[in-house]
Amino acid sequence: MKFHHALLFLHLAGVILWVGGMAFAHFCLRPAALELPPAQRLTLWCGVLGRFFRVVWLAIGLIVGSGFAMLGATGFAQAPVAWHAMAGIGLVMVAVFASIWFGPWQALQQAVAAESWAQGASALNRIRQRVGINLLLGTFTVAVATLGLAV
Ligand code: HEM
């Protein structure tokens, strides 16, 4: 096993945690949670997202750290276009996640603590939209990385 393989393993572990977690939240948890009354639904999401978002910070560390280590070892000038595209979209995904963390995620926690369910629902909706953007970007990035669309 080469060092590159270990980095690729850490990279993909991060991608699986982040993109897989978003897919689970969007396609499985959300439809089930919609059947709950607002107080229970928003309290549940607060508990779920608090845990998931800490996992996402770990995943970001793994993906960005290993990604740039692999890119740097090959050389930025020699790296295929697909790797540059992946790095660019990956950094946009990190920016979108940071905008969730510092924006609607803080608002959701405050709304749940104050039992302001209307504000909480609005904050959760903004989180849902941005997670949806990152789910699309993440899926597209995996396609760029694997399908040979750019060399
Ligand atoms: C943030 C900056 C990122 C950098 C600098 C980066 C860089 C890299 C590099 C250099 C490789 C090695 C490719 C190879 O050995 O063939 C790689 C593989 C891969 N990356 Fe990224 N990446 C980043 C983000 C992402 C993101 C956000 C995703 C998906 C959501 C992703 C998905 C993948 C996949 C699926 C592979 C495996 C491709 C293969 O080996 O065929 N990467 N990445």
TrEMBL record:
Keywords: Membrane, Transmembrane, Transmembrane helix. It comes from the Bacteria. Coiled coil: none annotated. The keyword Transmembrane helix applies. Residues 48-146 form the Copper resistance protein D domain. InterPro entries: Cu-R_CopD_dom. One of its GO terms (cellular component) is membrane. The chain crosses the membrane at residues 49-69, 81-102, 131-150. The keyword Transmembrane helix applies. This is Copper resistance protein D domain-containing protein.
